[in-house]
């Protein structure tokens, strides 16, 4: 009979815990791949929902890894690779297919800048020390904002918003600049009691405004984070 030491058992337990958050990371990548498939099939709404699903998986993998104390360098690298597909390539291709295909080189260059800015943002995050804030707009937030704009396109048209080429290109460039900028954005990984209360009050206020004026709640929250996040750092 082969005996296994306690140290080996602990190591095996950590390896099993390591697999769990990696599954969420791989689901993130799968959602990004599904988004690309939906774009090829001209199902742009489905692609937007897949990007949102990737954002949810990206949130869960970090939470699960910290809860199980199974964070690792491999998991971080895998997370960045998945984010590159789901939050850099997929949103860029979605915007190109939906709005920028007839802009020819201008649209392609703007989206190339967005994709490169997102990749640079991911690389900078990997080599930076853990902090209570993000430096630059997080790529999941930028991708989530794009997906919400696509999902709420009918509402935007209803309120009279007609996206022109200049507005779309300006929005793409603005998101890219914010991702590589030194602007600090709140990180919700570790919240104090005061910051948690402030966050809940802010979400409650936005929910009330959304309900009263019939506004899309998630789009409003994302826009508020992008515009005001650099000012209010929890």
What keyword list fits this structure?
two-stranded antiparallel ribbon; mainly alpha; 234 residues; globular; Four Helix Bundle (Hemerythrin (Met), subunit A); 2 strands; disordered N terminus
* CATH architecture tag: Up-down Bundle
Number of strands: 2
Structural class: mainly alpha
Structurally, how many domains make up the residues? 1
Task: Bin the helical content.
Answer: over 70%
CATH class: Mainly Alpha
Q: Going across the biggest sheet, name each strand in turn.
A: 1-2
Q: What is the chains' assembly state?
A: single chain
Walk me through what this model shows.
The protein is an all-alpha fold and 234 residues long. Helices cover 76% and strands 3% of the residues. The protein has helices spanning 6-40, 44-67, 73-100, 105-127, 139-151, 153-158, 165-180, 193-213, 217-228, and strands at 133-135, 184-186. It has a two-stranded antiparallel sheet. It is globular and about 50 Å long. The N and C termini lie far apart (56 Å). Mean pLDDT is 82; it is low at 1-13.
Set down the secondary structure blueprint.
Layout: H1 6-40, H2 44-67, H3 73-100, H4 105-127, E1 133-135, H5 139-151, H6 153-158, H7 165-180, E2 184-186, H8 193-213, H9 217-228
Antiparallel strand pairs: 1-2
Helix pairs in contact: 1-2, 1-3, 2-3, 2-5, 3-4, 3-5, 4-7, 5-9
């Amino acid at each position: 009979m082969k005996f296994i030491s306690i140290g080996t058992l602990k190591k095996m337990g950590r390896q099993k815990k390591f697999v769990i958050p990696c599954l969420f990371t791989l689901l993130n990548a799968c959602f990004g791949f599904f988004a690309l498939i939906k774009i090829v099939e001209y199902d742009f709404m489905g692609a937007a929902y897949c990007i949102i699903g990737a954002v949810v998986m990206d949130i869960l993998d970090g939470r699960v890894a910290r809860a199980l104390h199974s964070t690792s360098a491999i998991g971080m690298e895998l997370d960045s690779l998945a984010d590159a597909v789901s939050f850099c390539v997929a949103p860029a291709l979605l915007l190109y297919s939906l709005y920028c295909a007839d802009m020819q080189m201008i649209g392609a260059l703007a989206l190339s800048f967005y994709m490169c800015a997102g990749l640079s943002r991911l690389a900078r995050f990997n080599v930076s020390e853990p902090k209570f804030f993000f430096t630059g707009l997080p790529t999941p937030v930028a991708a989530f904002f794009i997906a919400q704009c696509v999902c709420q396109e009918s509402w935007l048209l209803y309120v009279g918003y007609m996206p022109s080429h200049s507005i779309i290109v300006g929005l793409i460039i603005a998101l890219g600049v914010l991702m590589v900028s030194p602007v600090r954005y709140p990180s919700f990984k570790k919240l104090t009691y005061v910051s948690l209360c402030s966050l809940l009050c802010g979400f409650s206020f936005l929910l009330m405004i959304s309900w009263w004026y019939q506004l899309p709640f998630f789009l409003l929250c994302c826009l508020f984070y992008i515009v005001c996040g650099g000012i209010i750092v929890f």
